[in-house]
Design a protein that fits this description.
By secondary structure, the chain is α+β, with helices and mostly antiparallel strands. It has 1 helix and 7 strands, in the order H-E-E-E-E-E-E-E. Helices cover 14% and strands 35% of the residues. Strands 4-3-6-7 form a 4-stranded antiparallel β-sheet, with no helix packed on it.
Length: 149
């Protein structure tokens, strides 16, 4: 009778590992790949964003675009820069959400205003937000300078 050594069990382990890898790689069903999200209608871009400074208050106005269908709100994005500490050249501007306005299909122009502190340069953008929280394309940027008195 021939005794089986540790080598017999080691080769069985390699065969078992190979079989598991083959089943894992070639097994399964269906298409391999990431799931495709459902198609949704893109949100319309805000057009003609304009801004003006009235005393200490910045007033923004824009036209909502072709339609407000699918828009839950307009997000107001602001970048605030201190001219004494400018950001590095080539660095992207950091915008923060400072408010939102609900869409109204009965108005020609949407408006937003907020008080501002002197000594800064403010840049604003508007971004539509859909019912599921998806963000649409950003508007043009408007920059208002309050760095000088």
């Amino acid at each position: 009778m021939k005794a089986r050594g540790a080598g017999a069990y080691a080769s069985f382990g390699w065969v078992l590992l190979g079989a598991v890898l083959l089943v894992t790689i070639f097994g399964g069903c269906g298409k391999k790949g990431p799931p495709v999200p459902p198609r949704s209608t893109p949100l319309p871009q805000v057009t003609t964003l304009e801004g003006r400074l009235e005393g200490d208050v910045i007033r923004l106005s824009w036209r909502p675009g072709e339609s407000v269908k699918g828009i839950k709100a307009y997000a107001i994005l602001r970048s605030q820069v201190d001219p004494a500490k400018p950001p590095c050249s080539g660095c992207p501007r950091i915008f923060q959400r400072v408010g939102q306005v609900a869409p109204d299909p009965n108005v020609q122009a949407v408006q937003f205003s907020e008080p501002t502190a002197p000594g800064f340069i403010y840049t604003y953008k508007i971004q539509p937000v859909g019912a599921s929280g998806d963000a649409g394309p950003e508007s043009n940027a408007v920059t208002l300078d309050r760095s000088t008195p």
